[in-house]
Amino acid sequence: MSITPQYTEKTISTDTFPDEYRTSSETREPEPPLKSNGDLQAAPMAESKSAPEHPDEEAEYIFGWKLILTTGIVALASFTMLLDTSIVVTAIPRITSDFHSLNDVGWYGSAYLLASSSLQPLTGKFYGQFNLKSTYLIFICLFEIGSLICGVAQSSKMLIVGRAVAGLGGSGLMNGSLTILSFCAPPEKRPALLGFLMGFAQLGILLGPLLGGVFTQYTTWRWCFFINLPIGGIVAGLLLLINIPDRRAPRPPIKTIRNALKIFDILGFLLFAPTMIMFLLALEWGGTSYPWHSATIIGLFCGAGGNLVLYLIWEYKKGDEAMIPLGMIKRRIVWSSFMVTFFFAGFMLISAYYLAIYFQAVRGRTPTMSGVDVLPGVITSLVFAVLSGVLVSRVGYYLPFAIFSAVVNAISSGLISSFTPTTDAGKWIGYQILAGLGRGSGMQMAIVAINTALTPAENPVGMAIIIFAQQFGGSVWLAIASTTFNTGLANALAKYAPGVDPKLIATAGATGYRNVIPAASVEGVIKSYNEAVNHDFYIAAGAAVATFFFSWGMGWKSVKKAKKVEPAA
Protein backbone atom coordinates (compact mmCIF):
# COMPACT_ATOMS: atom_id res chain seq x y z
CA MET A 1 0.00 0.00 0.00
CA SER A 2 -0.57 9.61 0.95
CA ILE A 3 -1.37 12.26 -0.30
CA THR A 4 -0.60 15.26 1.46
CA PRO A 5 -2.65 17.98 0.01
CA GLN A 6 -1.25 21.26 0.94
CA TYR A 7 -2.00 24.89 1.22
CA THR A 8 -2.02 27.38 -1.58
CA GLU A 9 -1.24 30.89 -0.48
CA LYS A 10 -4.80 32.16 -0.22
CA THR A 11 -7.00 29.90 -2.29
CA ILE A 12 -8.35 26.45 -1.91
CA SER A 13 -7.47 24.17 -4.83
CA THR A 14 -10.32 22.47 -6.65
CA ASP A 15 -8.05 19.76 -7.99
CA THR A 16 -9.64 17.27 -5.64
CA PHE A 17 -12.78 17.23 -7.75
CA PRO A 18 -12.92 14.82 -10.71
CA ASP A 19 -12.68 16.63 -14.04
CA GLU A 20 -16.17 15.67 -15.08
CA TYR A 21 -17.65 17.62 -12.16
CA ARG A 22 -15.78 20.84 -12.99
CA THR A 23 -16.90 23.59 -15.33
CA SER A 24 -14.82 26.10 -17.13
CA SER A 25 -16.52 28.85 -15.22
CA GLU A 26 -15.82 27.34 -11.81
CA THR A 27 -14.12 29.93 -9.64
CA ARG A 28 -13.55 30.33 -5.98
CA GLU A 29 -13.26 33.50 -3.96
CA PRO A 30 -10.02 33.82 -2.03
CA GLU A 31 -10.35 32.42 1.47
CA PRO A 32 -7.99 32.38 4.40
CA PRO A 33 -6.17 29.08 4.78
CA LEU A 34 -7.19 26.49 7.33
CA LYS A 35 -5.07 25.35 10.18
CA SER A 36 -4.62 21.65 10.72
CA ASN A 37 -7.34 21.69 13.38
CA GLY A 38 -9.86 23.20 11.00
CA ASP A 39 -9.96 26.71 12.52
CA LEU A 40 -9.67 29.75 10.35
CA GLN A 41 -6.62 31.89 10.72
CA ALA A 42 -6.62 35.55 9.90
CA ALA A 43 -5.54 36.51 6.41
CA PRO A 44 -2.49 38.78 6.31
CA MET A 45 -3.21 42.49 5.90
CA ALA A 46 -2.61 43.85 2.42
CA GLU A 47 -0.16 46.44 3.63
CA SER A 48 1.91 44.05 5.69
CA LYS A 49 5.29 42.88 4.58
CA SER A 50 5.39 39.82 2.39
CA ALA A 51 5.33 36.60 4.39
CA PRO A 52 7.06 33.36 3.48
CA GLU A 53 5.31 31.43 0.76
CA HIS A 54 4.23 28.77 3.27
CA PRO A 55 4.59 30.24 6.76
CA ASP A 56 3.11 27.16 8.43
CA GLU A 57 5.37 24.68 6.61
CA GLU A 58 7.12 23.76 9.84
CA ALA A 59 3.78 22.85 11.42
CA GLU A 60 2.62 20.90 8.38
CA TYR A 61 5.60 18.54 8.10
CA ILE A 62 8.59 17.34 10.06
CA PHE A 63 12.21 17.78 9.03
CA GLY A 64 15.76 16.76 9.89
CA TRP A 65 16.44 13.93 12.29
CA LYS A 66 12.74 13.53 13.12
CA LEU A 67 11.90 12.85 9.47
CA ILE A 68 14.83 10.44 9.15
CA LEU A 69 13.78 8.66 12.34
CA THR A 70 10.14 8.42 11.24
CA THR A 71 11.16 7.00 7.87
CA GLY A 72 13.34 4.41 9.58
CA ILE A 73 10.58 3.47 12.01
CA VAL A 74 7.87 2.85 9.44
CA ALA A 75 10.32 1.15 7.04
CA LEU A 76 11.41 -1.25 9.78
CA ALA A 77 7.80 -2.04 10.71
CA SER A 78 6.90 -2.68 7.07
CA PHE A 79 9.99 -4.85 6.60
CA THR A 80 9.02 -6.94 9.62
CA MET A 81 5.45 -7.38 8.38
CA LEU A 82 6.56 -8.60 4.94
CA LEU A 83 9.31 -10.72 6.49
CA ASP A 84 6.64 -12.52 8.48
CA THR A 85 4.82 -13.50 5.29
CA SER A 86 7.80 -15.41 3.88
CA ILE A 87 10.08 -16.40 6.76
CA VAL A 88 7.89 -19.35 7.69
CA VAL A 89 8.35 -21.03 4.28
CA THR A 90 11.68 -22.70 5.10
CA ALA A 91 10.60 -23.46 8.68
CA ILE A 92 7.47 -25.42 7.79
CA PRO A 93 9.17 -28.84 7.42
CA ARG A 94 10.60 -28.59 10.96
CA ILE A 95 7.30 -27.27 12.37
CA THR A 96 5.30 -30.13 10.86
CA SER A 97 7.85 -32.57 12.25
CA ASP A 98 7.62 -31.13 15.78
CA PHE A 99 3.82 -30.97 15.83
CA HIS A 100 3.19 -34.04 13.62
CA SER A 101 0.83 -31.81 11.65
CA LEU A 102 1.44 -32.38 7.96
CA ASN A 103 -2.26 -31.82 7.23
CA ASP A 104 -2.07 -28.30 8.68
CA VAL A 105 0.77 -27.12 6.44
CA GLY A 106 -1.43 -24.94 4.25
CA TRP A 107 -2.93 -23.14 7.23
CA TYR A 108 0.39 -21.76 8.48
CA GLY A 109 0.42 -19.37 5.55
CA SER A 110 -3.32 -19.18 4.88
CA ALA A 111 -4.32 -18.10 8.40
CA TYR A 112 -2.12 -15.01 8.13
CA LEU A 113 -3.18 -14.24 4.57
CA LEU A 114 -6.91 -14.66 5.19
CA ALA A 115 -6.92 -12.46 8.29
CA SER A 116 -4.76 -9.78 6.69
CA SER A 117 -6.56 -9.59 3.35
CA SER A 118 -10.05 -9.63 4.87
CA LEU A 119 -9.39 -6.73 7.23
CA GLN A 120 -7.18 -4.71 4.87
CA PRO A 121 -9.82 -2.39 3.30
CA LEU A 122 -11.31 -1.63 6.72
CA THR A 123 -7.95 -0.37 8.00
CA GLY A 124 -8.36 2.65 5.74
CA LYS A 125 -11.52 3.56 7.65
CA PHE A 126 -9.71 3.17 10.98
CA TYR A 127 -6.87 5.47 9.93
CA GLY A 128 -9.38 7.89 8.44
CA GLN A 129 -11.38 8.17 11.67
CA PHE A 130 -8.83 7.85 14.48
CA ASN A 131 -5.46 9.32 15.41
CA LEU A 132 -2.76 7.99 13.07
CA LYS A 133 -0.15 7.19 15.71
CA SER A 134 -2.56 5.51 18.14
CA THR A 135 -4.11 3.37 15.41
CA TYR A 136 -0.68 2.35 14.13
CA LEU A 137 0.44 1.35 17.64
CA ILE A 138 -2.68 -0.80 18.08
CA PHE A 139 -1.89 -2.71 14.89
CA ILE A 140 1.72 -3.17 16.06
CA CYS A 141 0.47 -4.57 19.37
CA LEU A 142 -1.83 -7.03 17.59
CA PHE A 143 1.05 -8.12 15.35
CA GLU A 144 3.32 -8.59 18.38
CA ILE A 145 0.71 -10.59 20.30
CA GLY A 146 0.24 -12.89 17.32
CA SER A 147 4.00 -13.35 16.96
CA LEU A 148 4.30 -14.17 20.67
CA ILE A 149 1.54 -16.78 20.43
CA CYS A 150 3.33 -18.36 17.45
CA GLY A 151 6.67 -18.36 19.24
CA VAL A 152 5.39 -20.13 22.35
CA ALA A 153 2.87 -22.35 20.52
CA GLN A 154 2.55 -25.83 22.00
CA SER A 155 0.34 -27.21 19.25
CA SER A 156 -0.36 -26.73 15.59
CA LYS A 157 -3.76 -25.20 16.33
CA MET A 158 -2.18 -22.65 18.68
CA LEU A 159 0.30 -21.71 15.96
CA ILE A 160 -2.52 -21.21 13.45
CA VAL A 161 -4.39 -18.94 15.89
CA GLY A 162 -1.21 -16.93 16.39
CA ARG A 163 -0.75 -16.56 12.65
CA ALA A 164 -4.32 -15.26 12.32
CA VAL A 165 -3.82 -12.69 15.10
CA ALA A 166 -0.54 -11.58 13.52
CA GLY A 167 -2.38 -11.24 10.21
CA LEU A 168 -4.95 -8.92 11.80
CA GLY A 169 -2.12 -6.75 13.09
CA GLY A 170 -0.16 -6.89 9.87
CA SER A 171 -3.19 -5.77 7.85
CA GLY A 172 -2.77 -2.20 9.07
CA LEU A 173 1.01 -1.85 9.16
CA MET A 174 1.87 -1.18 5.53
CA ASN A 175 -1.11 1.12 5.03
CA GLY A 176 -0.24 2.95 8.24
CA SER A 177 3.42 3.26 7.29
CA LEU A 178 2.62 4.83 3.93
CA THR A 179 0.02 7.15 5.41
CA ILE A 180 2.26 8.32 8.26
CA LEU A 181 5.22 8.96 5.97
CA SER A 182 3.03 10.89 3.54
CA PHE A 183 1.71 13.09 6.33
CA CYS A 184 5.19 13.72 7.71
CA ALA A 185 7.31 14.24 4.58
CA PRO A 186 7.19 17.45 2.53
CA PRO A 187 6.20 16.87 -1.11
CA GLU A 188 9.68 17.40 -2.55
CA LYS A 189 11.12 14.64 -0.34
CA ARG A 190 8.17 12.25 -0.42
CA PRO A 191 8.89 10.20 -3.59
CA ALA A 192 12.45 9.39 -2.49
CA LEU A 193 11.36 8.43 1.02
CA LEU A 194 8.46 6.33 -0.27
CA GLY A 195 10.94 4.63 -2.58
CA PHE A 196 13.21 3.79 0.34
CA LEU A 197 10.25 2.56 2.39
CA MET A 198 8.99 0.27 -0.38
CA GLY A 199 12.46 -0.96 -1.31
CA PHE A 200 13.46 -1.74 2.26
CA ALA A 201 10.10 -3.37 3.02
CA GLN A 202 10.36 -5.64 -0.03
CA LEU A 203 13.62 -6.99 1.39
CA GLY A 204 11.43 -8.78 3.91
CA ILE A 205 9.86 -10.93 1.19
CA LEU A 206 13.23 -11.69 -0.39
CA LEU A 207 15.21 -12.33 2.81
CA GLY A 208 12.47 -14.19 4.69
CA PRO A 209 13.29 -17.68 3.40
CA LEU A 210 17.01 -17.07 4.00
CA LEU A 211 16.53 -15.98 7.62
CA GLY A 212 13.97 -18.72 8.21
CA GLY A 213 16.48 -21.31 7.02
CA VAL A 214 19.23 -19.88 9.24
CA PHE A 215 17.03 -19.83 12.36
CA THR A 216 15.68 -23.31 11.71
CA GLN A 217 19.11 -24.79 11.00
CA TYR A 218 21.14 -23.13 13.75
CA THR A 219 18.67 -22.30 16.56
CA THR A 220 14.94 -23.07 16.49
CA TRP A 221 12.04 -22.24 14.17
CA ARG A 222 10.46 -20.30 17.05
CA TRP A 223 12.91 -17.47 16.41
CA CYS A 224 11.13 -16.91 13.10
CA PHE A 225 8.43 -15.33 15.28
CA PHE A 226 10.39 -14.17 18.33
CA ILE A 227 12.45 -11.88 16.08
CA ASN A 228 9.36 -9.70 15.64
CA LEU A 229 9.13 -8.91 19.37
CA PRO A 230 12.23 -6.74 19.88
CA ILE A 231 11.73 -5.07 16.51
CA GLY A 232 8.13 -4.22 17.35
CA GLY A 233 9.17 -2.90 20.75
CA ILE A 234 11.79 -0.63 19.18
CA VAL A 235 9.31 0.65 16.59
CA ALA A 236 6.63 1.40 19.18
CA GLY A 237 9.08 3.06 21.58
CA LEU A 238 10.62 5.34 18.97
CA LEU A 239 7.25 6.23 17.47
CA LEU A 240 6.17 7.67 20.81
CA LEU A 241 8.92 10.29 20.42
CA ILE A 242 7.50 11.62 17.15
CA ASN A 243 4.56 13.96 16.68
CA ILE A 244 2.68 12.99 13.50
CA PRO A 245 1.24 16.07 11.73
CA ASP A 246 -2.42 15.80 10.83
CA ARG A 247 -3.83 18.32 8.35
CA ARG A 248 -7.25 16.72 8.09
CA ALA A 249 -10.41 18.45 9.21
CA PRO A 250 -11.72 17.16 12.55
CA ARG A 251 -13.66 13.92 12.21
CA PRO A 252 -17.13 13.69 13.76
CA PRO A 253 -17.08 11.75 17.04
CA ILE A 254 -18.57 8.27 17.29
CA LYS A 255 -21.45 8.64 19.74
CA THR A 256 -23.49 5.46 19.27
CA ILE A 257 -23.09 1.92 18.02
CA ARG A 258 -25.34 2.78 15.10
CA ASN A 259 -23.05 5.68 14.27
CA ALA A 260 -20.03 3.34 14.33
CA LEU A 261 -21.74 0.83 12.07
CA LYS A 262 -22.39 3.62 9.58
CA ILE A 263 -18.93 5.22 9.69
CA PHE A 264 -17.01 1.95 9.35
CA ASP A 265 -19.48 0.29 6.97
CA ILE A 266 -19.56 -2.86 9.09
CA LEU A 267 -22.19 -4.53 6.89
CA GLY A 268 -19.94 -3.95 3.89
CA PHE A 269 -17.08 -5.55 5.81
CA LEU A 270 -19.24 -8.54 6.76
CA LEU A 271 -20.00 -9.07 3.07
CA PHE A 272 -16.42 -8.45 1.92
CA ALA A 273 -14.59 -10.65 4.44
CA PRO A 274 -16.28 -13.98 3.55
CA THR A 275 -15.89 -13.11 -0.13
CA MET A 276 -12.13 -12.87 0.29
CA ILE A 277 -11.92 -15.91 2.56
CA MET A 278 -13.80 -18.16 0.13
CA PHE A 279 -11.86 -16.91 -2.89
CA LEU A 280 -8.44 -17.23 -1.24
CA LEU A 281 -9.27 -20.67 0.17
CA ALA A 282 -10.24 -21.81 -3.32
CA LEU A 283 -6.88 -20.58 -4.62
CA GLU A 284 -5.01 -22.14 -1.69
CA TRP A 285 -6.71 -25.55 -1.88
CA GLY A 286 -7.22 -25.82 -5.62
CA GLY A 287 -4.89 -28.33 -7.23
CA THR A 288 -3.34 -29.35 -3.89
CA SER A 289 -5.87 -30.33 -1.22
CA TYR A 290 -8.69 -30.69 -3.75
CA PRO A 291 -8.85 -30.97 -7.56
CA TRP A 292 -9.84 -27.75 -9.32
CA HIS A 293 -13.01 -29.40 -10.62
CA SER A 294 -14.07 -30.67 -7.18
CA ALA A 295 -17.35 -29.60 -5.59
CA THR A 296 -15.45 -27.90 -2.76
CA ILE A 297 -13.42 -25.59 -5.01
CA ILE A 298 -16.32 -24.84 -7.35
CA GLY A 299 -18.55 -24.14 -4.34
CA LEU A 300 -16.01 -21.73 -2.86
CA PHE A 301 -15.69 -19.82 -6.13
CA CYS A 302 -19.48 -19.66 -6.53
CA GLY A 303 -19.94 -18.51 -2.94
CA ALA A 304 -17.29 -15.82 -3.40
CA GLY A 305 -18.94 -14.65 -6.62
CA GLY A 306 -22.40 -14.47 -5.08
CA ASN A 307 -21.15 -12.60 -2.05
CA LEU A 308 -19.22 -10.21 -4.27
CA VAL A 309 -22.41 -9.24 -6.10
CA LEU A 310 -24.16 -8.49 -2.80
CA TYR A 311 -21.14 -6.52 -1.60
CA LEU A 312 -21.01 -4.36 -4.75
CA ILE A 313 -24.74 -3.62 -4.53
CA TRP A 314 -24.36 -2.55 -0.92
CA GLU A 315 -21.29 -0.41 -1.60
CA TYR A 316 -23.12 1.29 -4.48
CA LYS A 317 -25.94 2.23 -2.11
CA LYS A 318 -23.50 3.50 0.53
CA GLY A 319 -21.82 5.87 -1.93
CA ASP A 320 -18.97 7.90 -0.45
CA GLU A 321 -19.52 6.33 2.99
CA ALA A 322 -18.68 2.84 1.72
CA MET A 323 -15.70 0.90 3.03
CA ILE A 324 -14.24 1.10 -0.49
CA PRO A 325 -16.04 4.06 -2.12
CA LEU A 326 -16.93 3.12 -5.68
CA GLY A 327 -16.72 6.79 -6.62
CA MET A 328 -13.05 6.73 -5.70
CA ILE A 329 -12.46 3.48 -7.58
CA LYS A 330 -14.04 5.00 -10.71
CA ARG A 331 -11.32 7.64 -10.94
CA ARG A 332 -8.95 6.61 -13.68
CA ILE A 333 -5.83 7.27 -11.65
CA VAL A 334 -7.14 5.09 -8.80
CA TRP A 335 -8.23 2.03 -10.76
CA SER A 336 -5.17 2.26 -12.98
CA SER A 337 -2.92 2.36 -9.91
CA PHE A 338 -4.84 -0.60 -8.48
CA MET A 339 -4.27 -2.66 -11.62
CA VAL A 340 -0.60 -1.65 -11.88
CA THR A 341 -0.09 -2.78 -8.28
CA PHE A 342 -2.07 -6.00 -8.86
CA PHE A 343 0.13 -7.06 -11.78
CA PHE A 344 3.36 -5.67 -10.33
CA ALA A 345 2.83 -7.77 -7.19
CA GLY A 346 2.42 -10.84 -9.38
CA PHE A 347 5.61 -10.12 -11.30
CA MET A 348 7.60 -9.42 -8.14
CA LEU A 349 6.46 -12.39 -6.05
CA ILE A 350 6.74 -14.90 -8.88
CA SER A 351 10.28 -13.67 -9.53
CA ALA A 352 11.24 -13.89 -5.84
CA TYR A 353 9.74 -17.31 -5.15
CA TYR A 354 10.78 -19.13 -8.29
CA LEU A 355 14.25 -17.66 -8.60
CA ALA A 356 14.93 -19.19 -5.18
CA ILE A 357 13.56 -22.53 -6.44
CA TYR A 358 15.84 -22.30 -9.48
CA PHE A 359 18.94 -21.91 -7.32
CA GLN A 360 17.91 -24.63 -4.86
CA ALA A 361 16.38 -27.27 -7.12
CA VAL A 362 18.35 -26.70 -10.33
CA ARG A 363 21.70 -25.41 -9.07
CA GLY A 364 21.72 -27.47 -5.85
CA ARG A 365 22.15 -24.53 -3.49
CA THR A 366 21.12 -24.63 0.17
CA PRO A 367 18.36 -22.24 1.28
CA THR A 368 21.02 -20.04 2.87
CA MET A 369 23.22 -19.90 -0.22
CA SER A 370 20.24 -19.32 -2.52
CA GLY A 371 19.56 -16.22 -0.45
CA VAL A 372 23.10 -15.07 -1.15
CA ASP A 373 22.67 -15.79 -4.88
CA VAL A 374 19.69 -13.43 -5.18
CA LEU A 375 21.49 -10.51 -3.51
CA PRO A 376 22.51 -8.84 -6.81
CA GLY A 377 18.85 -8.21 -7.64
CA VAL A 378 17.91 -7.34 -4.05
CA ILE A 379 20.61 -4.71 -3.64
CA THR A 380 19.98 -3.20 -7.07
CA SER A 381 16.26 -3.02 -6.32
CA LEU A 382 16.80 -1.09 -3.09
CA VAL A 383 19.27 1.34 -4.69
CA PHE A 384 17.01 2.18 -7.62
CA ALA A 385 13.89 2.42 -5.44
CA VAL A 386 15.53 5.35 -3.66
CA LEU A 387 17.17 6.79 -6.79
CA SER A 388 13.94 6.72 -8.81
CA GLY A 389 12.16 8.51 -5.97
CA VAL A 390 14.81 11.25 -5.99
CA LEU A 391 14.50 11.60 -9.76
CA VAL A 392 10.70 11.83 -9.58
CA SER A 393 11.10 14.71 -7.14
CA ARG A 394 13.46 16.43 -9.57
CA VAL A 395 11.59 15.71 -12.81
CA GLY A 396 8.12 16.08 -11.32
CA TYR A 397 6.49 13.15 -13.14
CA TYR A 398 6.18 9.51 -12.10
CA LEU A 399 4.77 8.07 -15.35
CA PRO A 400 8.10 7.80 -17.26
CA PHE A 401 9.54 5.72 -14.43
CA ALA A 402 6.49 3.43 -14.30
CA ILE A 403 6.73 2.83 -18.06
CA PHE A 404 10.50 2.28 -17.92
CA SER A 405 10.04 -0.18 -15.04
CA ALA A 406 7.43 -2.22 -16.92
CA VAL A 407 9.61 -2.50 -20.02
CA VAL A 408 12.71 -3.54 -18.06
CA ASN A 409 10.70 -6.02 -15.96
CA ALA A 410 9.32 -7.72 -19.06
CA ILE A 411 12.78 -7.94 -20.66
CA SER A 412 14.46 -9.24 -17.51
CA SER A 413 11.76 -11.90 -16.98
CA GLY A 414 12.23 -13.06 -20.56
CA LEU A 415 15.99 -13.28 -20.06
CA ILE A 416 15.67 -15.17 -16.77
CA SER A 417 13.31 -17.64 -18.45
CA SER A 418 16.30 -18.68 -20.57
CA PHE A 419 18.24 -19.98 -17.54
CA THR A 420 19.58 -23.52 -17.80
CA PRO A 421 21.31 -25.75 -15.24
CA THR A 422 24.66 -24.52 -16.59
CA THR A 423 24.02 -20.79 -17.08
CA ASP A 424 27.24 -18.98 -16.18
CA ALA A 425 27.47 -16.57 -13.25
CA GLY A 426 27.87 -13.53 -15.48
CA LYS A 427 24.40 -14.07 -16.94
CA TRP A 428 22.47 -14.98 -13.81
CA ILE A 429 24.04 -12.08 -11.92
CA GLY A 430 23.59 -9.62 -14.80
CA TYR A 431 19.98 -10.60 -15.47
CA GLN A 432 19.15 -10.21 -11.78
CA ILE A 433 20.71 -6.75 -11.73
CA LEU A 434 18.50 -5.83 -14.69
CA ALA A 435 15.48 -7.22 -12.84
CA GLY A 436 16.42 -5.20 -9.75
CA LEU A 437 16.65 -2.07 -11.90
CA GLY A 438 13.12 -2.65 -13.17
CA ARG A 439 11.65 -3.51 -9.76
CA GLY A 440 13.27 -0.60 -7.99
CA SER A 441 12.33 1.94 -10.65
CA GLY A 442 8.62 1.23 -10.44
CA MET A 443 7.64 -0.37 -7.15
CA GLN A 444 6.40 2.87 -5.54
CA MET A 445 5.05 4.72 -8.57
CA ALA A 446 1.41 3.65 -8.08
CA ILE A 447 1.64 4.90 -4.50
CA VAL A 448 3.14 8.21 -5.66
CA ALA A 449 0.31 8.54 -8.19
CA ILE A 450 -2.36 7.98 -5.53
CA ASN A 451 -0.49 10.30 -3.20
CA THR A 452 -0.62 13.03 -5.82
CA ALA A 453 -4.33 12.67 -6.56
CA LEU A 454 -6.12 12.31 -3.22
CA THR A 455 -6.82 14.60 -0.27
CA PRO A 456 -5.64 13.86 3.29
CA ALA A 457 -9.09 12.55 4.24
CA GLU A 458 -9.12 10.20 1.23
CA ASN A 459 -5.52 9.15 1.70
CA PRO A 460 -5.93 6.29 4.25
CA VAL A 461 -8.65 4.63 2.15
CA GLY A 462 -6.60 5.14 -1.02
CA MET A 463 -3.54 3.55 0.57
CA ALA A 464 -5.67 0.65 1.83
CA ILE A 465 -6.91 0.06 -1.73
CA ILE A 466 -3.35 -0.08 -3.08
CA ILE A 467 -2.08 -2.36 -0.31
CA PHE A 468 -5.07 -4.63 -0.85
CA ALA A 469 -4.21 -4.76 -4.55
CA GLN A 470 -0.69 -5.81 -3.60
CA GLN A 471 -1.84 -8.59 -1.27
CA PHE A 472 -4.66 -9.77 -3.49
CA GLY A 473 -2.49 -9.67 -6.61
CA GLY A 474 0.25 -11.59 -4.89
CA SER A 475 -2.20 -14.29 -3.78
CA VAL A 476 -3.84 -14.66 -7.19
CA TRP A 477 -0.62 -14.72 -9.21
CA LEU A 478 1.20 -17.06 -6.83
CA ALA A 479 -1.74 -19.47 -7.08
CA ILE A 480 -1.60 -19.28 -10.88
CA ALA A 481 2.18 -19.72 -10.83
CA SER A 482 1.94 -22.66 -8.43
CA THR A 483 -0.58 -24.46 -10.62
CA THR A 484 1.51 -23.77 -13.72
CA PHE A 485 4.66 -24.95 -11.96
CA ASN A 486 3.14 -28.18 -10.62
CA THR A 487 1.59 -29.03 -13.98
CA GLY A 488 4.79 -28.16 -15.84
CA LEU A 489 6.91 -30.19 -13.43
CA ALA A 490 4.70 -33.27 -13.78
CA ASN A 491 4.76 -33.02 -17.59
CA ALA A 492 8.52 -32.48 -17.66
CA LEU A 493 9.14 -35.42 -15.34
CA ALA A 494 7.18 -37.65 -17.70
CA LYS A 495 9.53 -36.48 -20.46
CA TYR A 496 12.93 -36.34 -18.75
CA ALA A 497 12.53 -38.77 -15.81
CA PRO A 498 9.63 -41.11 -16.62
CA GLY A 499 10.48 -43.52 -13.81
CA VAL A 500 10.16 -40.91 -11.06
CA ASP A 501 6.90 -40.41 -9.16
CA PRO A 502 5.91 -36.69 -9.22
CA LYS A 503 4.31 -37.05 -5.78
CA LEU A 504 7.62 -38.26 -4.37
CA ILE A 505 9.39 -35.20 -5.80
CA ALA A 506 6.73 -32.86 -4.42
CA THR A 507 6.97 -34.40 -0.95
CA ALA A 508 10.78 -34.31 -0.89
CA GLY A 509 10.90 -30.63 -1.88
CA ALA A 510 13.31 -28.58 -3.95
CA THR A 511 16.36 -29.45 -1.86
CA GLY A 512 15.52 -32.97 -0.73
CA TYR A 513 14.65 -34.83 -3.93
CA ARG A 514 18.29 -35.83 -4.53
CA ASN A 515 18.13 -38.00 -1.41
CA VAL A 516 15.06 -40.02 -2.42
CA ILE A 517 15.60 -40.85 -6.11
CA PRO A 518 18.23 -42.94 -7.92
CA ALA A 519 21.36 -41.03 -8.95
CA ALA A 520 20.65 -41.84 -12.59
CA SER A 521 17.38 -39.87 -12.42
CA VAL A 522 18.81 -36.70 -10.85
CA GLU A 523 19.76 -35.07 -14.16
CA GLY A 524 16.26 -35.60 -15.57
CA VAL A 525 14.64 -34.12 -12.46
CA ILE A 526 16.96 -31.09 -12.66
CA LYS A 527 15.88 -30.49 -16.26
CA SER A 528 12.25 -30.87 -15.21
CA TYR A 529 12.56 -28.31 -12.44
CA ASN A 530 14.36 -25.93 -14.78
CA GLU A 531 11.64 -26.15 -17.42
CA ALA A 532 8.85 -25.68 -14.86
CA VAL A 533 10.55 -22.60 -13.40
CA ASN A 534 11.04 -21.10 -16.86
CA HIS A 535 7.30 -21.41 -17.55
CA ASP A 536 6.56 -19.31 -14.46
CA PHE A 537 8.87 -16.57 -15.69
CA TYR A 538 6.75 -16.42 -18.84
CA ILE A 539 3.86 -15.52 -16.51
CA ALA A 540 6.02 -12.91 -14.76
CA ALA A 541 6.85 -11.38 -18.14
CA GLY A 542 3.15 -11.27 -19.03
CA ALA A 543 2.33 -9.53 -15.74
CA ALA A 544 5.04 -6.96 -16.47
CA VAL A 545 3.55 -6.30 -19.91
CA ALA A 546 0.16 -5.73 -18.26
CA THR A 547 1.69 -3.12 -15.94
CA PHE A 548 3.00 -1.33 -19.04
CA PHE A 549 -0.51 -0.85 -20.45
CA PHE A 550 -2.20 0.07 -17.17
CA SER A 551 0.58 2.50 -16.21
CA TRP A 552 -0.58 4.91 -18.90
CA GLY A 553 -3.87 5.30 -17.04
CA MET A 554 -2.06 6.89 -14.09
CA GLY A 555 -1.61 9.98 -16.26
CA TRP A 556 0.91 12.79 -16.56
CA LYS A 557 0.24 14.34 -13.17
CA SER A 558 2.97 16.45 -11.63
CA VAL A 559 4.03 15.82 -8.05
CA LYS A 560 4.99 19.50 -7.90
CA LYS A 561 1.42 20.76 -8.17
CA ALA A 562 -0.02 23.33 -5.78
CA LYS A 563 -0.76 22.31 -2.26
CA LYS A 564 -4.34 21.52 -1.38
CA VAL A 565 -6.37 22.10 1.74
CA GLU A 566 -9.07 19.79 2.91
CA PRO A 567 -12.32 21.62 3.46
CA ALA A 568 -13.73 21.51 6.94
CA ALA A 569 -16.33 18.89 7.60
Please provide a written account of the structure.
- It is a single chain.
- This protein has 569 residues and is an all-alpha fold.
- It folds into two domains: 58-264 and 323-488 and 536-554, Growth Hormone, Chain: A (Up-down Bundle); 265-322.
- Helices cover 68% and strands 0% of the residues.
- It has 23 helices and no strands.
Q: How helical, in percent, are the residues?
A: 55-70%
Low-confidence stretches: 1-58, 562-569
**Overall pLDDT level:** 81
Architecture of the largest domain in CATH?
Answer: Up-down Bundle
Radius of gyration: 24 Å
* Largest beta-sheet characterization: none
Number of helices: 23
Strand runs, count: 0
Query: SSE order, as H and E?
Result: HHHHHHHHHHHHHHHHHHHHHHH
Could you name the CATH class of the largest domain?
A: Mainly Alpha
Number of domains: 2
Q: Which structural class best describes the helix and strand composition?
A: mainly alpha
CATH superfamily of the largest domain: MFS general substrate transporter like domains
Range of strand content: under 5%
Per the CATH scheme, the topology name of the largest domain is Growth Hormone, Chain: A
The CA-CA distance between the termini, in Å, is 26 Å
Mass-distribution shape: globular
